[in-house]
Amino acid sequence: MEKIEPDRKHFFILTLVLVSIFFFHLLLEYQKFEDFTSVKYHPIKAKVLSEFQKITKKGKRYTLLKLQTDNGIKFFGISWQKNLKKLTNSAIKCKVLTKNISFYKYLRGFFAPVYGIKVKKSNSNSLKTDISNYITSQHKNMTAKEIFSTLFLGTKLHKQTRLHIQTLGISHLVAISGFHLGVLSFLIFLVLTPVYKLFQDKFFPYKNHKLDMMMASLFLLFGYLYLVGFIPSLSRAYIMLILGYIFYIRHIKIVSFETLFLTLLLLLAINPAYIFSISFWFSVFGVFYIFLFLYYFKELKPWLVFILINFWVFVAMQPIVHYIFPTFAISQLLSPFLSMIFIVFYPLELFLHLIKEGDLLDGVVLKLLDFHTITVPVKTPLWFLMIYIATSLLSIYKKIFLYLLISEALFFFLKFLIFNF
Predict the structure, then answer these.
(1) Where are the chain's structural domains?
(2) How many other β-carbons are positioned within 10 Å of the β-carbon of residue 332?
């Protein structure tokens, strides 16, 4: 059945509804902000999502805690308290100094001193911890332990490992995102569909197996989302997946700029703080450039689309990425190739860890991370970024699309010019 475009009238009404919900949620957030900052030292109950040991320039030690309060506020707490035991996954009580927190900082994410930390309970025996121990026990090298714990459970990487990954341009592969959710969704379909069809053919042939598999996929992925702690990038991808399924069922065209725009509005309406999230905008532009490629080149053979789209998204995202992360290395050119390999690597590693052979490819992974190249600072000027984004959004018109290609070529030329000098 041919997919239909969203009706313009309904599209306009839905846009108004979502914008209204956005401002309503913004008002609710402001009320929560006023309540939170109403006293100088606000008592809270929170879960410690992660912790980092830091040292000031003067050599004084402190602990940086990523906290989530009972009412959903996430922030970084700075504690000077000595002799703190490992707090990750623990529930704590403390007081937050709210003196210098503005509404802007509150939405974007803030740092605030915390005092009088008391541990209520520890979740050290939680399912996530047990799975993490199961994964890390299969590796001898600490870097490999980090990589695979992050890959499957979204745990934090140490700074040095993170820098190596950024140099290779594969941060989007290691940090759990929509890319991983898509692969997991495909694996669920692949594994469960043959089993389901055996029962369907005998007991309920009238059922739509695709619809049932979609529901099973969403249910299982929600369990995974809960396990890893509703990581924002994964939560956004999950909502986009739900919308994709709804559009599919309603025979609405999924790969269209209108549906992407509605998805963007819905996500911002659900959580206005996403407007300050870098990973959110990276994911939005990533999907936009995928749609843009398919808009012009969907008639190509599927295998050619698969290859070219990885290179296209990598090139198209460069001016945006280098505005936030102003570092370039020749090794980043491996990113499109590694993205294609990852489609096989990720499910293979998942299988190897299930059969307790997770270290089988550690040598290859560690050699890749040891691949060092010279890095140079490459910062996208704000004026160029603004022109580039405007050109991108207008490139649904063929003539403007040519200018987008020219601007990408120009950016790459200047980048290599800077690298050679």
Answers:
(1) 37-123, 156-420
(2) 20
